[in-house]
């Protein structure tokens, strides 16, 4: 049912999701009165922003599982939340199936809400404590299929509960009666209940026990196979990326520095930051290249560095890197890299 | 979900809850609840319980005025707690008066809660300008004391429409005055809880689902802010009853023909020096007891529902 419906809008080769020049700033300065300051005897208005994301471009094809990796605070969750419309972008646009969705009202977004769903990080907070599992799962179905009978809704809930491995007769229990892994399964069931084609998963397994992580990850991979899902998967766990992702986007300080197929990226990381990141993965082999130790700290996103965001810590940075912001260029092995040094063939 | 299991589940959860456990171990809470239910019961059943109808002028005998209660010499056994200055049976008047006080108390709190919860939800959930506007409105409202607003409005209504009209609409008018004056208490508490709940991911999940703001506010956030609402409601009922009594004592509340506890205290106050102390003191004691048990129950609830002590 879903396949035909979504294919009617566009051909299968156009990207499902396109993000162009996305920026998101959060004001740090409070309301108008708090922004007023005395500076050398004059009253001035001063506003400061956290630049969570500064110009992110992403394209997700149908059937892909694009993983976004990066350290804490690099803006990967903000990308996920902006794509889902939970945050309004400060600049740039989000296109879903060719249509711009970032400026739509809640009402006109509704058809897209059925097609794109989100799984959250913390399963202890993502289920309403005052609703039973049955109520939680019925709500999205009832909203998006108002014409369905009670029995049809119940059958659908039954089906998704079985598909995520939660016994359907637990329906009239509350979220707090379940373990973290089970809650995350229920949260996944809630996302799957409306038969979406695209799922944004914001670190869905990082709050879980290590023993449960693999189970939930496998559940997400099975769902991808069976329901032909496309994923935008936010994580900081490179082992998960290697296991789960078809493509990887590496983010640093609110910008994408490299996008490549998972195999390519893990075999031949190009960007200096990606190289450092990859060298930090613990491996069993002896012959791995030397661990790259980066100098300094990640700069604060309040005062962004000029030029390339990575230039302060990059061993290959030159004058141009300090001046000019690099854009993504496609390299010979298909990877896209935002680096002047690679563009100029100074490094491989 | 089969229909029989849901209420059973609710009952089991109540039986196993910390609320009941704590109640069983708190003697003061138990006594307060018993006293409150007793007072509520006699007030609700006043028309059936009271020996005479104090609103019915034909039953009043002015010759029987200022009779003392039964334990003092000179009492009449028909009037257990004596009579007031107009010869009304004090017991009946107190029962009816408690009824009026409770109606105004609960009515005013219902109005406060409705306004305060709606404004608090809007301010907390929508944020931004709506929040700034509603909260400044609350600040302005709070800077006038309840009594002052009530006195001004009450006096104006009395002056414009006359005492008779005022008397006829005294109960709804007092409910509106006290209700309007105290909504910021609710709005502030609800707003604070909404801000805390809004940051949780289940609200994001509801937004991603495509639910309307109204449904998210009332179906998802409101049920999770009920505990503080419950606690302030008890305190506010007691406050509203006190406010009504104070207004009646000042002559701006219930008229003497349909007295509340406050106007009874006032009507007896003039006779306090002449020895008829019971007209003031007995309704006064009932008022104190009513407010005290409500406050004690509220205190107990606040302790039990305090998320720092017990999370649930």
Tally of individual domains of chain A? 2
> CATH superfamily of the largest domain in chain A, please?
P-loop containing nucleotide triphosphate hydrolases
- Unreliable stretches of chain A: 1-8
Share of helix of chain A, binned: 25-40%
Strand pairing plus helix content of chain B: what structural class? mainly alpha
Which superfamily, in CATH terms, is the homologous superfamily of chain B? MetI-like
Tally of DSSP β-strands of chain B: 0
Q: How would a textbook summarize the main sheet of chain A?
A: 8 strands, mixed
Main pleated-sheet profile of chain B: none
Separate helix tally of chain A = 13
Head-to-tail CA distance between termini of chain A: 47 Å
Give the topology string of chain B: H per helix, E per strand.
Answer: HHHHHHHHHHHHH
Structural category of chain A is alpha/beta
Shape of chain A: globular
SSE series of chain A: HEHEEEEHEEHEHHHEHEHEEHHHEEH
Helix content of chain B: over 70%
In the CATH hierarchy, what is the class of the largest domain in chain A? Alpha Beta
Family (chain B): Belongs to the binding-protein-dependent transport system permease family.
Organism (chain B): Aidingimonas halophila
Subcellular location (chain B): Cell membrane
Membrane topology (chain B): Multi-pass membrane protein
């Amino acid at each position: 049912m879903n396949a035909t419906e979504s294919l009617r809008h566009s051909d299968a080769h156009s990207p499902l999701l396109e993000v162009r020049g996305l920026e998101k700033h959060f004001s740090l300065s409070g309301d108008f009165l708090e922004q007023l300051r005395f500076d050398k005897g004059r009253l001035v208005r001063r506003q400061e922003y956290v630049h969570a994301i500064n110009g992110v471009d992403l394209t997700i094809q149908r059937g892909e599982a694009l993983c976004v990796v990066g350290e804490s605070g690099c803006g990967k969750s903000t990308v996920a939340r902006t794509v889902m419309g939970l945050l309004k972008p400060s600049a740039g646009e989000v296109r879903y199936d060719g249509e711009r969705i970032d400026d739509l009202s809640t009402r006109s977004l509704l058809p897209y809400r059925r097609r794109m769903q989100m799984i959250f990080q913390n399963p202890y907070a993502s289920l309403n404590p005052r609703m039973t599992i049955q109520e939680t799962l019925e709500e999205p179905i009832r909203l998006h299929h108002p014409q369905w009978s009670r029995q049809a809704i119940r059958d659908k809930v039954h089906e998704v509960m079985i598909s995520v491995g939660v016994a359907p007769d637990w329906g009239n229990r509350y979220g707090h009666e379940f373990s973290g892994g089970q809650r995350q399964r229920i949260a996944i069931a809630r996302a799957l209940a409306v038969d979406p084609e695209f799922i944004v998963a914001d670190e869905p397994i990082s709050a879980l026990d290590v023993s449960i992580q693999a189970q939930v990850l496998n559940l997400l991979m099975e769902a991808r196979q069976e329901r032909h899902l496309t994923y935008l998967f936010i994580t900081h766990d490179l082992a998960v990326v290697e296991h789960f992702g078809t493509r990887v986007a590496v983010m640093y300080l609110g910008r994408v520095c490299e996008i490549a197929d998972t195999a390519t990226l893990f075999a031949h990381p190009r960007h200096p930051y990606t190289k450092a990141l990859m060298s930090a993965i613990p491996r069993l082999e002896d012959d791995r290249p030397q661990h790259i130790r980066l100098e300094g700290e990640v700069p604060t996103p309040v005062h962004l560095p000029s030029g390339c965001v990575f230039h302060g810590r990059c061993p290959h940075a030159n004058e141009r890197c300090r001046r000019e912001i690099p854009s993504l260029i496609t390299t010979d092995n298909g990877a896209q890299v935002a680096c002047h040094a690679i563009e100029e063939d100074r490094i491989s | 979900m089969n229909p029989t299991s849901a209420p059973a589940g609710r009952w089991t959860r109540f039986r196993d809850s910390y609320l009941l456990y704590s109640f069983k171990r708190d003697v003061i809470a138990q006594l307060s609840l018993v006293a409150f239910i007793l007072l509520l019961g006699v007030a609700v059943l006043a028309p059936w319980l009271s020996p005479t109808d104090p609103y019915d002028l034909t039953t009043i005998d002015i010759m029987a005025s200022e009779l003392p209660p039964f334990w003092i010499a000179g009492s009449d056994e028909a009037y257990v707690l004596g009579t007031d200055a107009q010869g009304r049976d004090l017991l009946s008047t107190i029962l009816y008066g408690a009824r009026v006080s409770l109606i105004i108390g609960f009515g005013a709190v219902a109005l406060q809660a409705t306004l305060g919860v709606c404004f608090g939800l809007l301010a907390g959930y929508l944020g931004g300008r709506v929040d700034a506007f509603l909260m400044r409105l609350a600040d302005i409202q709070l800077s006038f004391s309840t009594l002052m607003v009530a006195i001004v409005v009450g006096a104006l209504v009395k002056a414009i429409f006359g005492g008779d009209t005022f008397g006829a609409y005294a109960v709804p008018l007092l409910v509106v005055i006290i209700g309007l004056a105290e909504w910021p208490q609710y709005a502030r508490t609800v707003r604070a809880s909404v801000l805390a709940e809004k940051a949780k991911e289940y609200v994001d999940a509801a937004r991603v689902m495509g639910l309307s703001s109204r449904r998210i506010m009332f179906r998802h956030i409101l049920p999770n802010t009920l505990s503080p609402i419950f606690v302030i409601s008890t305190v506010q009922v007691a406050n509203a009853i006190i406010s009504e009594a104070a207004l009646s004592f000042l002559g701006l509340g219930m008229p003497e023909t349909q007295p509340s506890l406050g106007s009874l205290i006032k009507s007896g106050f003039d006779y306090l020096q002449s020895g008829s102390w019971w007209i003031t003191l007995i309704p006064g004691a009932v008022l104190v007891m009513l407010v005290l048990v409500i406050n004690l129950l509220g205190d107990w609830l606040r302790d039990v529902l305090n998320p720092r002590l017990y999370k649930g």
